[in-house]
Specification:
Blueprint (H helix, E strand, L loop, with lengths): L15 H9 L9 E2 H8 L3 H13 L3 E3 L4 E4 L1 H13 L3 H15 L2 E8 L2 E8 L14 E3 L5 H8 L8 H7 L2 E4 L6 E9 L5 E10 L5 H17 L17
Antiparallel strand pairs: 1-3, 2-3, 4-5, 4-9, 5-6, 7-8, 8-9
Length: about 240
């Protein structure tokens, strides 16, 4: 059986399910298509094992194989992702909020939720301005990479952030050129009527036009629009974050 010889290759997972998950996690925005060699290097699995697991994924439409012998995530995962999004049952209430905020601020607006050590864009409204920060639904970013939404999610899910005191005192996180140069963002926590922490709603724009005054105005607009749909942006009395979100 062929093995991966690179000393830098990771130790392959022992369980079959864990091995399958490790394959799916190899794909990202920077690497939407990967060769068999790429997958072997990233998972530490030998090519024979990879081919067996890939055949199962291809049959289930979770991975697609191109004629160029490269692989990509398949359409079944998109369907699952939409089902995941629908389980929140928030779109009909949050999407109008995001659109109203985008129209009033002129900037991109997005709702992020925490998934392990990452944050995922669940809903978004991109500004129509030519120079903008474009956010895609399903986009996954590391919490460690920074940005105001990352700080808010950390503060309300048991993570550490240097902005925690400001977030709890002021009710928002504000950053400038932290994750993306020349971009400024401000984020607030979102709680539903049943006291459930939903995620972080963020307004993002060019730092040159999205100055501190504009960011503070955005916070006011966000709070008003969220309140119109039954959400709030402050933690309920006695609320404590649940770790391991």
């Amino acid at each position: 059986m062929e093995t991966v010889s690179s000393q830098n290759s990771p130790k392959p997972p022992a369980g079959v399910l864990e091995r399958g998950i490790s394959i799916l996690e190899c794909f990202n925005e920077d690497s939407p298509r990967l060769s068999l060699r790429d997958l072997a290097e990233r998972t530490g699995l030998d090519k024979a094992t990879l081919l067996r697991l890939l055949a199962v994924f291809i049959k289930a439409r979770m991975i697609h194989r191109y004629d160029s012998s490269t692989y990509a995530l398949g359409p079944a995962l998109l369907h699952m992702g939409m089902l995941y999004r629908d389980t929140f049952d928030l779109g009909s209430r949050l999407q109008p909020v995001l659109r109203a905020v985008m129209e009033q601020t002129g900037e991109t607006v997005a709702l992020y939720v925490r998934s392990g050590d990452d944050r995922i864009c669940l809903y978004r409204e991109n500004t129509s301005k030519e120079v903008r920060h474009h956010v895609e639904v399903g986009k996954r970013l590391g919490l460690k990479d920074g940005g105001s939404s990352a700080h808010v999610l950390r503060a309300f899910t048991g993570g550490d952030t240097p902005l925690e005191r400001d977030i709890h005192e002021k009710g928002y996180a504000m950053t400038r050129s932290e994750r993306v140069a020349e971009m400024a963002s401000v984020a607030v926590p979102v709680f539903d009527a049943d006291d459930t922490f939903v995620g972080a709603l963020v307004v993002l724009g060019l730092a040159s036009r999205h100055n501190e005054a504009a960011q503070l105005k955005a916070v006011e607009i966000v709070r008003h629009e969220l309140g119109q749909q039954g959400f709030r942006t402050c933690a309920p009395a006695g609320w404590t974050p649940k770790t391991g979100a």
